Each structure stands twice: as structure tokens, then as C-alpha cells.
Predict the structure.
Amino acid sequence: MSLASFNNSSLITGALLLVPILFVLYRNLTPSSSSDTTSSDSSSPSDTSEQEPKSIMQPARTDLLPPKDDPFTLNELKQYDGTTEGMPIYVSIKGTVFDVSHKSDVYGAGKSYNIFAGKDGSKGLGMSSLKTEHAVPDYSGLDEKDMKTLNDWHAFFIKRYNIVGRVSDLPDAVKDQ
């Protein structure tokens, strides 16, 4: 079957199904801080190294630059949405702006997670939603489960993408969270 035969609804459905699957795999295949403390007593360092290859998630990068604190307004962030050739692609989570350009196959124009490019889509990430109306910075209404999901995404991005700045005009409801 050729790629051209997929219609837009098939692509959207596939992308929507991919988010929760990746999240479940991430949650089940990466150690949490609480399981680290309980399992470290009964396992040797060699046991830990044997477990690492099981993760399908990309490993934390060791070549990240020191984080920057450059201010971006939500309006300024829009120009980094992956639609302009040669411009970096930025995604903001909880006001932290990440350079995701090296993953343009995922965040570039027309790609599965482009909905989050050039904006702070914290609410949508917390909800594991690819709906445009959810890709907004105000995540104040998220329940505890969705806040955990959002915090997990933020922690994931910190380990894998360069921090290039922060959003200076977040909604008041989330400014100090």
C-alpha cells in the first residue's frame, strides 16, 4: 500500500493512537524514581545495564547545550512552527522553550506532532491530545493524572532537547506553576 493511498483521517487516527501507545510504553519501560530506590537494594549494577536496552524511547542526550533563558512571547514563538525552511522548530512545555529541530521528521510541517510546534501546547500534551483546541498553554484545569503526564513530558524533553528560552507571557493561571 502506498503512502499516497492513506487519507487524512487515517493519518490523524494513526497519530492519535500513537500518542497513548508511546506514553504507555514510556511509563512501562522507563524506571521511575520510586522503583529505582526499591529495586536498587536487590539488584546489582549489571542487572540495571541489562534492562536499559529494553526501552524503545530515545535515550537522554549527552550533547545538550547549557539552557538559555531568552524570553519569547507566545506570538514570537509562532514563527518557529516548522513551516519556514531554515528556521528552527521550537516547542514550549510549561513555558520552557525547547529546540526540536533535529526531530523535524516528527515536529516539522505536516508531521504527526507539528500541532505543538511554534506554541506552548502544554494542555494537549498533558491530555495526550492532538486536537488543535487542546494545544494551548493554559493547563490549569488538568486533573492529577493529566498533570503527571504533562510533568513526565516536560522531564522527557529536558533530557533530550536544548532549552532555548522561556515563554514570557504565559496565562496568569499557570505563570507560577
In short: The CA atoms of residues 7 and 13 lie 10 Å apart. The chain has two domains: 1-57, 60-177. The chain has seven helices and four strands. Residues 1-57 form one domain.
